[in-house]
């Protein structure tokens, strides 16, 4: 694989980052994952906008312009011959040459920019979409700024492991009795023609896929309610699903052992997946 590190395209075995990098020592960094379909980037503009916001919220300078970032994405997709897959991007607060809690002076410590591709043939035709996911609920004990896409992914990783141990696919986080989101995705339930998903705030990541899917749902005359919902409400819903850049729209058919609706992927989730993939392929860059 050819990867990108601070201005250079290198074989992955030659890419190097300092042991003093604040991403490594303090998880002081942000990231984005952009899907590739037909060799093109899905919603690059959305991911670039969220990256800009994440950086601003953490007082980090953008290492390159968003135009340059698009060029780097495209270059990596081309060099690695990616038809379907993802581009992972990470910006950290760089290498101050030592360990210190205080942020280094950005004039002396440039941020570290790293990108790499993940080849995933069959990403859009994922057979899981016809089966759906089983999830468990777990306590949301993450920090209070989940709207910033930081690389602090230890608890989501633990959540995925709890799901694995329970013999299911993923976990939904619950805080004060209400579902926040999935370990790496936004969570939804469906009641009739109504789609219910957590309102934006500091409690969840502002999903780029979420924004697009809600727009398509409204355009298709579905009702959208952005509000918190409980597990009890989810248990009696007609359908459930999740969204993320790499899963697109994925049905959820079981929560904590309770079948949702028929226990099979529902028509709303399936239709939204189809619309999302169709529309986003057309708009891909
Ligand atoms: N919520 C969390 C916690 C995530 O980690 C992700 C994606 O990684 C999402 C939601 C979905 O966001 P997006 O649709 O931008 O991929």
UniProtKB/TrEMBL annotation:
Pfam families: Aminotran_4. Keywords: Amino-acid biosynthesis, Aminotransferase, Branched-chain amino acid biosynthesis, Pyridoxal phosphate, Transferase. GO terms for molecular function: branched-chain-amino-acid transaminase activity. It catalyses: L-leucine + 2-oxoglutarate = 4-methyl-2-oxopentanoate + L-glutamate; L-valine + 2-oxoglutarate = 3-methyl-2-oxobutanoate + L-glutamate; L-isoleucine + 2-oxoglutarate = (S)-3-methyl-2-oxopentanoate + L-glutamate. Its cofactor is pyridoxal 5'-phosphate. The keyword Amino-acid biosynthesis applies. GO terms for cellular component: cytosol. The keyword Magnesium does not apply. It comes from the Bacteria. Pathway: Amino-acid biosynthesis; L-valine biosynthesis; L-valine from pyruvate: step 4/4; Amino-acid biosynthesis; L-leucine biosynthesis; L-leucine from 3-methyl-2-oxobutanoate: step 4/4; Amino-acid biosynthesis; L-isoleucine biosynthesis; L-isoleucine from 2-oxobutanoate: step 4/4. GO terms for biological process: amino acid biosynthetic process; branched-chain amino acid biosynthetic process. Its EC number is 2.6.1.42. Acts on leucine, isoleucine and valine. Belongs to the class-IV pyridoxal-phosphate-dependent aminotransferase family. This is Probable branched-chain-amino-acid aminotransferase. It comes from Rhodobacter ferrooxidans. The lineage of its organism: Bacteria, Pseudomonadati, Pseudomonadota, Alphaproteobacteria, Rhodobacterales.
């Amino acid at each position: 694989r050819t990867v990108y590190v601070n201005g250079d395209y290198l074989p992955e075995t030659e890419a190097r980052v300092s042991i003093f990098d604040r991403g490594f020592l303090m998880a002081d960094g942000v990231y984005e994952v952009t899907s590739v379909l037909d060799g093109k980037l899905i919603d690059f503009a959305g991911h670039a906008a969220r990256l800009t916001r994440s950086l601003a919220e953490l007082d980090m300078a953008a290492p390159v312009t968003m135009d340059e970032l698009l060029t780097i994405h495209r270059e990596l997709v081309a060099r690695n011959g990616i038809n379907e897959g993802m581009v992972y991007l990470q910006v950290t607060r760089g290498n101050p040459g030592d360990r210190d809690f205080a942020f280094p002076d950005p004039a002396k410590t440039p941020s570290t920019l790293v990108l790499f591709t993940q080849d995933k043939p069959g990403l859009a035709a994922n057979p899981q979409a016809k089966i759906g996911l089983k999830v468990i609920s777990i306590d949301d004990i993450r920090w209070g700024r989940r709207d910033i896409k930081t690389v602090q992914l230890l608890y989501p990783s633990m959540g995925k492991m709890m799901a694995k141990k329970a013999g299911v696919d993923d976990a939904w986080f619950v805080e004060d009795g209400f579902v926040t989101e999935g370990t790496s995705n936004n969570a939804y339930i469906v009641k009739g023609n109504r789609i219910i998903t957590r309102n934006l705030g500091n409690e969840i990541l502002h999903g780029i896929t979420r924004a697009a899917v809600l727009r398509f749902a409204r355009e298709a005359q579905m009702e959208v309610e952005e509000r918190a919902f409980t597990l009890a409400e989810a248990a009696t819903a007609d359908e459930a699903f999740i969204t993320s850049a790499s899963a697109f729209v994925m049905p959820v058919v079981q929560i904590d052992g309770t079948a949702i609706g028929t226990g099979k992927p529902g028509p709303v989730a399936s239709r939204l997946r189809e619309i999302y993939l169709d529309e986003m392929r057309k708009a891909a860059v």
